Batch of 2 targets.
Target 1
Amino acid sequence: MGESQKNESVKKIVLAYSGGLDTSVILPWLKDHYAGVKLIAFAAELGQGDELAGIKAKALKSGADQCIVADLREEFARDYCFPMLRAGAVYEHSYLLGTSIARPLIAKHQVDVAHQFGADAVGHGATGKGNDQVRFELTYMALGPELKIIAPWKDDRFELRSREAAIEYAKLKGVPIAQTTRKIYSRDRNLWHISHEGADLEDPANEPRDDLWVMSVPVSKAPAKPGYVRVGFEAGTPVSVDGRKLAPHKIIEKLNELGGRHAVGQVDLVENRLVGMKSRGAYETPGGTILITAIRALESLCLERELMHYKQQLALKYAELVYYGQWFHPLRVALDSFMQTATQSVTGEVKVKLFKGRATVASVTSPKSLYSRDLASFTMGAEYDGKDAIGFIRLLGLPMRVHASVNGRGK
C-alpha cells in the first residue's frame, strides 16, 4: 500500500482526527507529501469526556483547512451499541466490543463528509499492526468504494513511527502538543467503554494496577453495601432506568455512573486480534455489563428454547463481524433482521444488583414471560402428565440403544 499511496494524486482528504499526537502530526505530514491537498479533519464526539476540548483550533493550527466535529453519541447508542446488545454479541467470552463498534460509525461519517464536500480521499491514523485499520478501511470500501484510502502508517515515506520522532516533527511544524511525556497506557474511550493497553499490561503475568481504572473504582474501593438499578426493555431495546424513560445515550451514561461506582465491568483478557497476534488489554464497560446481564435474564424468561439456542449461536458470528470491522457487511445486516424478529417479545424490567465488581440479577418481570410456575413446580398437576415422558424418552434414546446393541454393550 505504501508504494501505491506514493503515486496517488489526491485533492482533498477527510482524515479521522482525534486531536492526539499521532493524528495531529499526520495533518502537516499530509500537506508535505501530497502537493496542494486540502485537509478536512473529522472528529466524532462519542462520549470520550473532555478529549475534544479545543480540538477545532488545534486541527487548524496543525494544518487542517477545515475541522468538523460531530456529536454522534445518540446515534452511536441507538444504531450501533443497542443492536449489538440485542444480538448478544460478545467477543471471546468477555470483550463487549467498545472500540470495535465505534470505528464503523466514525468511518461512515467520514464518507458522508467526503461526499458532501467533494473530497476524493479518506484517511486514518491507525497503524498497520492493529485491528482499527481494517475497521476503517472496510467501512470506506463498503460505503465509498470510489474514494482513495490514505493510511500514512502503511506509506513507505512515513518516518514518524516513534513518539519522539512525532514530537520533534510537531515542534518543527508548530503543531500544538499538550505534553511531551508518554502516557503510561494507550487508551481509547467512548460512551460504551474505555480500553487500556501497553506498559505493564503487555506482560500477562502482571496484575492490572488499581490506578489503571478510569471509568470505575478498583474493586477494593467499591462500597461495602450493594446498589440496585432497574432497567426496562421494549422488544430487546433498553428504554428506561429506574422507571424513567431516557434517550439511548443517556441510558448508557447513567448506567456507567452507577456501575462504575461499584467497580462493575472490569475485564482483563488476552484476545486474538484479526491481524493474527494475541494482545492483552484491560477494559471497563460498566453500563454495557449491566445491560448485557439484564437482557440475558429477560431473554431467559421470554424466548422459546430453540429460538434462544439458535440466537446464541448467531451471536458468536455477529460478534466476529463487529470485531472484524464488517459492520456494513450484508451478513451483519441480515443477522440484524433476525435479531430484531427474535427479540420482539423481550419486553420487561430487570433489577440488577451491583456489588464489588459484579452485576447479578435480583429480579426479572415481563408481560411476555413464558415461565409457568405451575409447569415448573415439582408438584405434579393436571398441566403435566409424567407418563407422557415414557414414550418421549424411549424415542429420544432409540438411536443410542441401537448403537449400544450393535457395539456389544450390555448383556
Target 2
Amino acid sequence: MKDIKSQAKEKMKGYCRVCPICDGRACAGEVPGMGGINTGSSFKNNIKALENVHINMRLVHEVRNPSTQINFLGLKLSMPIVAAPIGGISFNMGGALEEQAYVNAILQGCQQEGTIGCTGDGVPPIIHESGFTGIKNLKGHGIPFLKPWEGAELRDKIAQAAATGCSIMGMDIDAAGLITLRKMGRPVTPFSQHELEEVIKHTHKLHMRFILKGIMTPMDALRAHEAGADAIVVSNHGGRVLDHCPGTAQVLPSIASAVKGRLPIMVDGGIRDGVDVLKMLALGADIVGIGRPCSIAAMGGEAEGVAKLLSNMRSQLEQAMILTGCETIAQISQEVIFKQ
C-alpha cells in the first residue's frame, strides 16, 4: 500500500495530497478536487465522529476464525465493505487515469476480493457511460448510482442502468444541491416522497432493487422506507455538498433506531480501516462504503491496488472481531462500543 499511495500521490498532484492521515484538513474547500466544500467541516466531522467512538476489547471467549461474509440485497459478499460511487476523474483526481480505466479498476478490484463496486454519475456523460460499460462488461456485477435528475433524463438513465444487467441501482439524492449542474443546464433536485415512490416503482418494474443515498436524519430514513426503498445509505456526500453537517457516525445510531431491521443500512464517510468498519457496524450499519481510500488505491495501483486495499481492510476487520469477541458480522452490536 505504501507504493500504491506513492504512485497515487504523483498521479493526483494538484488534486489530492494523499496525506498520511486523510482527514480533510489540507484539502478544505477544494471542490472540484478531493476536499470538502467551503470550510471542509462536514468532511472533517466524518473523521472526528469515528475518532470519538471507542471500542471494548474482549478476549475471554472462543472466537478464533471470524466470518466476514454477508448477504446484501441478494448478493453474497465476502465482507460488509463496498466501493462507494465516485466519478469525475479528470476534474477531481487530475485525469492521470481515464474515466473508464478508473471505473474498471474499482469494479474489477472489488470483484477480485468477493465484493462489489458502485459507480457514479454526472457531467460530462463519460462518467455514467463508463460506469455502465464497466458493469456490463462484468455481466452486471456493479451498482450504478444516478443523480436526482429532473424530467426524462432520470428515466432514460434508469433504463440504461437496467441494460447493464445489474440487480441493484442507487440514487445519491445528496447531490440535489449541486448548483454547478443546474448552471450547466442539467438540473438536479430533491424529491417528494410521492415522487420517490414513482421512481422506485419504475425501478422495480425493471427488476432492480433501489438504494437511496444521502440519508442524514431518522425522518428521511422513514420516508425512504415508506416510499419503498430497498436500502439506504447514511451519507453527507463525503462532505462535498453542504458545510457544517454532523459526521455520519454521529447520526447513524438514531437512524438505525428508526429503521434497523426494516431495510439494510449502508454508511460512508471517513472510514479508513477495518476498525472503522467495525465501529460503523456496531453503531447500526449493515454494510459500509469506502470512498477516497478506494479512489487513491485505484489511481495508484488500478484493480490490484483496490484489491489490496480491500484485502487489508478485511484482515483488519477480522482482527478487530477477534479482539472484541464477534464470530460473525451479525454479532457486532453496540456492546462493542465503550460507553462511560
